[in-house]
Write a structure and sequence with these properties.
Helices cover 25% and strands 25% of the residues. The chain is α+β, with helices and mostly antiparallel strands. β1 and β2 form a beta hairpin. Pfam families: HTH_31.
């Protein structure tokens, strides 16, 4: 994916977040001292600042969201817009059959949990006191935050490196990789937010 395609995808995700909150571009922009025109340029993916973490934090804060929410949404394709009912199809014998309407997939319940870090092992990504929010049973993305719930009751935070039939590998911010066997893991979850201590 090119940088321009990535910018467009992030901008579209920003627009989806704004619409989910029921805000106009002018209302969202006003929350952070920006004009509706300035906000629309971010949603169109036409501002280079869209990739800057501080700008993502500023934009998402206007929507009561986090940069992690934005990036997760950017990776999820938008639902297709409802279109007109499908026209009857015909087969070779001239017999008509009705188009089939599909029920949307049932929405899944999002199970988010939080815990507070008590070490600086993941600095500068997250320090002691940072609250980690994670979505249970959501597959982490490559290099993204992952929480492993271990059978011994511990939680392990790391950066997702991948998995195979034997287990998973996570790394700390220094790049040291740690493998875990599937037999030692109860659940794998994706980090959806880091809430910095005040």
């Amino acid at each position: 994916m090119s940088e321009q395609e990535a910018a467009i995808r992030i901008g579209e995700a920003l627009g989806r977040l704004r619409r989910e909150r029921g805000l106009s571009q002018a209302e969202a922009g006003a929350r952070i001292g920006m004009t509706s025109q300035g906000w629309s340029l971010y949603e169109a993916g036409r501002r280079a600042g869209l990739f800057r973490p501080d700008m993502q934090k500023r934009l998402t804060a206007a929507l009561d969201a986090t940069p992690e929410d934005l990036m997760l949404l950017a990776e999820t394709p938008p639902s297709p817009a409802p279109g007109p009912a499908s026209a009857p199809a015909t087969d070779g014998a001239g017999v008509q059959s009705k188009g089939r309407d599909f029920e949307p997939a049932p929405s899944r319940t999002i199970r988010r949990e939080r815990y507070r870090l008590d070490t600086d092992d993941m600095g500068p990504w997250a320090f002691a006191g940072t609250i980690i929010e994670y979505e249970k049973d959501r597959q982490p993305k490559q290099g993204g935050g992952a929480v492993l719930q271990l059978r011994d009751g511990r939680l392990h935070l790391g950066l997702w490196q991948g998995s195979d039939d034997r287990g998973v590998v996570v790394a700390n911010t220094g790049g040291t990789q740690t493998p875990f066997s599937w037999r030692d893991i109860l659940a794998v979850s994706a980090v959806t937010a880091r809430i910095e201590p005040e």
